[in-house]
Amino acid sequence: MAALKTEIKEENDEDVENEIEIDDLGEEANEPAKRKKKKKKKKKTGEGNPDENIEKTGTEVTVENGVDHEGEADGEKKKKKRNRKKGGKIVQTNPPSIAIADLFPDGVFPLGEIQEYPTIKDDRTAKDRFTSEEKRALDRMHNDIYNETRQYIQKWIKPGMTMIEICEELENTARRLIAENGLKAGLAFPTGCSRNHCAAHYTPNAGDKTVFEYDDVVKIDFGTHINGRIIDCAFTHTFNPKYDKLVEAVREATNTGIKAAGIDVQLCEVGAQIQEVMESYEIELDGKTYSIKSIRNLNGHSISPYRIHAGKTVPIVKGGEATVMEENEFYAIETFGSTGRGLVHDDMECSHYMKNFDVPYVPLRLQSSKTLLNVINKNFGTLAFCKRWLDRAGATKYQMALKDLCDKGVVDDYPPLCDIKGCYTAQFEHTIILRPTCKEVVSRGDDY
């Protein structure tokens, strides 16, 4: 989720599918003797013993005593196959449907990409941090990292799908994987799917019929949380290869920002390196060459529990603040490139909202406002939400109440952020942790 800077300096104008062998299901359906024998065996070993017989109906897979049985419903033959994972370990389905916590019942989750810290001015190097046993012990606290749904969505999206269809598929997948549980685990903010000149903070409201077209450049920005610990990531999706240079520029700028980040590193130095890489690119579209600009009033941000924008900003142009990054901080390193002015403004119908983290008690006169605030507190707390999510939570006729809460400063609105019409914008983003001994890119995957 993008952070909007308030000041602008003039000088900066196929996965492994189910990990199960699936082949020739039902080919032996004409062998009644074998089928009868198999059904009899299942009755002996499985019925009445839940520890020995676990069925996952969504994928038509049965696990008996560590052995997978696959086949079709309605009595058709289930062909026995041994799980390729040792010990019958549960593996993910395709599309993803098993909660990450169920895949790792011991609570030991995969780490993200580990990077050493860059050398800083006083010559304290990354190697020095890797020799500290005390700080290495602190690192073991960071073990609740969850996989994201990016790879599935990137393969699933097709031209002609509506934005609502795309967002709901992504959100429902993420909810399953995170094992949504009220404010303890779930989505951290609405799925952004901003198109073309719109850079951030657009998600469709109910009734929005916008379609993802072949020539669109769409930024997919989403995140999940466990106990308020947020993982924020974004990628740009296109179908037309003519935008490849724009996508490449922004991806490389994000990777540059990640590489530059570290404990005691000044935020302005990160921004300067991002801009240098971003603006070394240009792109030719329809016979005209465009310089790719960093969007100077958008930036990355620090993250704290239940607070997506925690106070520090990571600029993507030179000339920012000299504030330093500190140990154990979480950051969203996100960059935005544009073929337009490189400056965004509020535009279009608002869909993103978030309760003000620091707001004191505010007396409310309207009963509808009190009711809506109770819905927000119960379902979202200080996490961002959208109108679709209010609908999902059962809120009705809330437009006036929502406006009242915004007018009183209890809730902040975040309208879509757009550059000039006709231009194209792209975004990439990762969440990093400045661990005591190293830097971890917790949202890194095989895709980017």
UniProtKB/TrEMBL annotation:
BP-aspect Gene Ontology terms: proteolysis
EC number(s) recorded for this UniProt protein: 3.4.11.18
Entry's Gene Ontology cellular component terms: cytoplasm
GO MF terms held by the record: initiator methionyl aminopeptidase activity; metal ion binding; metalloaminopeptidase activity
Biased composition regions of type Basic and acidic residues, renumbered to the chain: 66-77
Cofactor note: Binds 2 divalent metal cations per subunit. Has a high-affinity and a low affinity metal-binding site. The true nature of the physiological cofactor is under debate. The enzyme is active with cobalt, zinc, manganese or divalent iron ions. Most likely, methionine aminopeptidases function as mononuclear Fe(2+)-metalloproteases under physiological conditions, and the catalytically relevant metal-binding site has been assigned to the histidine-containing high-affinity site.
Main location: cytoplasm
Compartment(s) of residence: Cytoplasm
Chain sites annotated for binding a divalent metal cation 2: 232, 301, 334, 429
Region (Disordered): 1-92
Names of required cofactors: Co(2+); Zn(2+); Mn(2+); Fe(2+)
Top-tier EC class: hydrolase
Binding site for a divalent metal cation 1: 221, 232, 429
Similarity annotation: Belongs to the peptidase M24A family. Methionine aminopeptidase eukaryotic type 2 subfamily.
HAMAP family found in the cross-reference section: MetAP_2_euk
Protein name: Methionine aminopeptidase 2
The organism's taxonomic lineage, starting at the top: Eukaryota, Metazoa, Ecdysozoa, Arthropoda, Hexapoda
